[in-house]
Every structure is written in C-alpha cells, then in structure tokens.
Input
Amino acid sequence: MKDRSCFFEDQAKLDISEAYDWYLKNASLRVAESFLNEIEESVNYIVQDGLLFKKIHKDYRQVPIKIFPFVIIYKLDTYVIKIYRIFSTNKDPNSKIL
Output
C-alpha cells in the first residue's frame, strides 16, 4: 500500500471526544486512555493496508476497535485516509454513514 496520510473528519473527532469523556466519567482514566490507544492501533492497521477491511457502503470501509464496542468508518483516497466516524456498535447501524 502507498504511504498515505491520515485525516480525521470533525465528526470522528467528536465521536472520540464523547467516548473518551464517557469512559473517563463512567470507568477510569486508564480505560479512557486504553480506548485512545486502541484507536491508534486500529488506525495503524488501516495505514498499513486499509484494503484488508470490508466495504460497508460504497467506498466506506470499517475496522473494529479491539476490546471496545466501536468501529472506525473510513475511506481510502489516493494519498489520504479519511476517518469519518468512530462509531459505537450500540447505536443504530443505519446512522453509521453521514
């Protein structure tokens, strides 16, 4: 796979912030930090070879986040990986794609 930069759309940033705050409030700092680490690890897999993960709608793909009930929704462009959502699997799956 070509070297691609990774860009988080505003909605993905909001998803991360909301989930982090929830884990911080309802679990612990350790769990909240683990959530961020798992996102980073999953994004690294996408950067290595984002084509490995299945398409869910048109050119949108998803990869699950280990341990946490979330998936990363993304698209591959020629030189950029765009992360659109960090989506909770507890939510309505019809709202994954904006």
Remarks:
- Residues 29-49 form the longest helix (21 residues).
- The chain has one domain: 5-89.
- The mean pLDDT is 92.
- Residues 65 and 71 are 5 Å apart (CA to CA).
